[in-house]
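From the shared-data thread, chain only:
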Amino acid sequence: MGTQVEPQAMKGQDLKEWRKRNGYTQERLREDLELGSRQTIITWEKSPKDLSRMLQLALKMLESEPPRKQSGRRIPAKVQKEIRRRGERALRAD
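Structure, as tokens:
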């Protein structure tokens, strides 16, 4: 049996590069993730820590299609709820 290689985790500091490569502003990413505040994204972008697995999966989903002019639900509600919960907890930890 072959060994499964785990993809390298994305660090918070890599998020800004990801946004630019995929055509997202902080505001558009906030809207697509349905976060309450852009401050969550700003905090993630300053962090040297790995982004949560849930957030990394959501970003992969967003990579599959370009940002829309109008925000719309592109990530399942359950995933968005978990990202918001984890984002708010990360802000309280700082």
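DSSP finds five helices and no strands in the chain.
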